[in-house]
Amino acid sequence: MKAKFSNKTKEAIYNRDQVCILCGDQWHSAHHVYFWLQADRTKERNNVDKWVLLCFDCHLKVHSCKSGEWVRQDCINYLKELWEK
Description:
two-stranded antiparallel ribbon
């Protein structure tokens, strides 16, 4: 399922994060924090609480074989901390 989310969802992600959540640089793209196999394949997959803003470099790191696992986990931890507030 391709990431199709509304402008309202995009705006909510931007308003929440505003910058790359990992390094604080200007964001480049929204990133879905779960692997395809872990992702809920319903319309909830594109819920604002499953996305974060990342800069270009951090987004590349997420998809890297060497650093991807810890970067992805940092994104998940960021969202979990928000849910607990």
